[in-house]
TrEMBL record:
It is a multi-pass membrane protein. InterPro entries: CrgA. The chain crosses the membrane at residues 32-54, 66-83. Its main location: membrane. Residues 1-23 are annotated as: Disordered. Involved in cell division. Belongs to the CrgA family. Keywords: Cell cycle, Cell division, Cell membrane, Membrane, Transmembrane, Transmembrane helix. This is Cell division protein CrgA. It is found in: Cell membrane. The gene is crgA.
Amino acid sequence: MPKSQVRKKKVYTPPTDVRPTATAATRKPSPLWLPVSAVSLIVFGIGWLVVYYLSEQEYPVMELGYWNLAVGFGAMVASLILLSRWR
């Protein structure tokens, strides 16, 4: 039985309008303080909420009342905003 011909594939080159630009490839990495501060904000927010619930709403700041929840969740939202800037 004769052997079939082997076809060579062409090398794919993407269209010019889809190719990444030189500026996108030369972005700087994020500074070290960014992930460190984001993780510390997450830990701070979770710690604040855990202390608030385990102390039966007496600590960390009794005068804030339910605004203690806003402090804890606000810290976690701030960390998410920081993490959206991480490259």
